[in-house]
């Protein structure tokens, strides 16, 4: 590594000093040895600066403290004091809008966090909060710098504190591009979105060696905390991709859908997709028979601008869909039951997924549209013992607490407590619509008839025929498509083909919605 002393001597005049500056800057930009760079690429990973170049608009990056060096001594640290101290910080633009970023440089101390390293991150986080602009972290670090002891651990505490302070104020996006172990994993967990890359990124609190020592279980790093594990099983990762280039391009896309901060609305764009475009295909996409499955994604594609949307947590809790899309050029959050997965029931994971998404939308002024086709909550001992009451209450709390425009549409089934929880009019939805295929009830007709007419069915000469008549009677009395509309529980029954136009007109009316909140420090949501 080149040192300042190795820069050409005799630099006593202005030109000499400038030459010295450029030499030092080049050294900081180049980083450690070419061998370290080759080792990084051999793992299928880009360098920190290459990642920043992919994330930000070309030529827009402004680096902060590129010449920072640690002051630690002992264990050989005093002989190794590279510029940047293993993290590159600064700001630039994404689609012309300011974004702050920090990127661990795994080539320097394995990206491990020391005191100077942490101070740089603290500074850029403070700048992002003060400027009211999104913060993106490109994570590729080996945890705390052991040689610096507790000072390194305290650095993580400062990051966690700022993550919490920024929560709901500016969008925070964590991009996992390498290992993230131990306490370091809690920073991404505190942010709004987590991206991961398959095979090269892992997150876990205790690694495979500790797991083996404590439990005797044999497992690989990817098996324990790889991208697919967190995208499908744990729900820690919102997005997972095969390579860094695709991953960072999707981060740019997500940023185009989010506001800079909680005092702004998401950016609107010109839309060439007609607002009054008819959705005639919806009549064939959704079967009238409530027991027949269909793909709710096709419904979403039919009603949003140009059929484009970004699904969040696509592979976790697949019985519910959470997505960001645009209606007439304006960003909207969509929550929809997915009849193709577990018939679209609500369970523990679906409730948590949707609750978190509702909170994010509400924090960043994103209107919410809910598409209902829900037969209820998933029954079972595992669900009850796992706390479905507590977890389901998270979704209920999130909806009730949300002040952004909220519109719900009942496509088919909407039964029991799940109907109430999925943003019904009774918990504060601004507008509720239903298709003519809707069935809003306490439970399905078969179950209801079995309870209400139990004695008549048991005493009948032909119990099955009696059951059929009672089911038909219950449906005609309490489950016909206009029952809820007649009682003011939905605002209108609409032609499915008019769904897009109805939503766009309703969202336009609600753009100026203002909600007065009660004076309180904060609520106490179910955990």
Automatic annotation (TrEMBL):
GO CC list: acetyl-CoA carboxylase complex
Chain ranges of the CoA carboxyltransferase N-terminal domain: 14-270
UniProt-listed Gene3D superfamilies: 2-enoyl-CoA Hydratase, Chain A, domain 1
GO molecular function: propionyl-CoA carboxylase activity
Pfam families: Carboxyl_trans
Superkingdom of the source species: Bacteria
CoA carboxyltransferase C-terminal domain boundaries: 274-509
Name the UniProt record assigns to this protein: Acyl-CoA carboxylase subunit beta
Organism field: Streptomyces benahoarensis
């Amino acid at each position: 590594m080149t040192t300042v002393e190795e820069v050409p001597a005799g630099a006593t005049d202005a030109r000499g000093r400038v030459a010295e500056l450029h030499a030092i800057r080049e050294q900081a930009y180049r980083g450690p040895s070419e061998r370290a760079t080759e080792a990084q690429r051999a793992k299928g990973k880009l360098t920190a600066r290459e990642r920043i170049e992919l994330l930000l608009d070309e030529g827009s990056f402004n680096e902060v403290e590129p010449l920072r060096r640690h002051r630690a001594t002992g264990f050989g640290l005093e002989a190794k004091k590279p510029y940047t101290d293993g993290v590159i910080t600064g700001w630039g633009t994404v689609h012309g809008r300011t974004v702050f970023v920090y990127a661990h440089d795994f080539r320097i101390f394995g990206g491990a966090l020391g005191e100077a390293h942490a101070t740089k991150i603290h500074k850029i986080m403070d700048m992002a909060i003060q400027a009211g602009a999104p913060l993106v972290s490109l994570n590729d670090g080996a945890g705390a710098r052991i040689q610096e002891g507790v000072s390194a651990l305290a650095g993580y505490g400062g990051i966690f504190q700022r993550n919490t302070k920024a929560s709901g104020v500016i969008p925070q996006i964590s991009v996992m591009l390498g290992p993230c172990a131990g306490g370091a994993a809690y920073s991404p967990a505190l942010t709004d979105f987590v991206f991961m890359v398959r095979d090269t990124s892992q997150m876990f609190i205790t690694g495979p060696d500790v797991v083996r020592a404590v439990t005797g279980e044999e497992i690989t790093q990817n098996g324990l905390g790889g991208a697919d594990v967190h995208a499908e099983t744990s729900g820690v990762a919102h997005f997972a991709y095969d390579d860094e280039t695709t991953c960072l391009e999707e981060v740019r896309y997500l940023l185009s859908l989010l506001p800079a901060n909680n005092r702004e609305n998401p950016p609107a764009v010109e839309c060439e997709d007609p607002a009054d475009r008819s959705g005639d295909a919806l009549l064939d996409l959704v079967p009238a028979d409530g027991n027949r499955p269909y793909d709710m994604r096709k419904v979403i594609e039919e009603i949003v601008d140009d059929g484009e949307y970004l699904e969040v947590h696509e592979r976790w809790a697949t019985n519910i869909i959470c997505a960001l899309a645009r209606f007439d050029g304006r960003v909207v959050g969509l929550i929809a039951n997915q009849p193709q997965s577990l018939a679209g029931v609500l369970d523990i994971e679906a409730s948590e997924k949707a609750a978190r998404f509702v909170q994010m939308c509400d924090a960043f002024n994103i209107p919410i549209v809910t598409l209902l086709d829900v037969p209820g909550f998933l029954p079972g001992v595992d669900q009850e013992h796992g706390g479905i009451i507590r977890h389901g209450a998270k979704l209920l709390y999130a909806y009730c607490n949300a002040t952004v425009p909220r519109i719900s549409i009942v496509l088919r089934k909407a039964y029991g407590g799940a109907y109430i929880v999925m943003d019904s009019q009774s918990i504060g939805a601004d507008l509720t619509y239903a298709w003519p295929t809707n069935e809003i009830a306490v439970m399905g007709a078969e179950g209801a008839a079995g309870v209400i007419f139990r004695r008549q069915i048991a005493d009948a000469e032909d119990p099955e025929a009696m059951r059929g008549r009672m089911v038909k009677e219950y449906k005609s009395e309490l489950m016909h498509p206009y029952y809820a509309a007649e009682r003011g529980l939905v605002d209108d029954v609409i032609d499915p083909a008019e769904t897009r136009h109805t939503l766009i007109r309703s969202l336009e009316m609600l753009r100026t919605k203002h909600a007065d909140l009660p004076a309180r420090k904060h609520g106490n949501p179910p955990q």
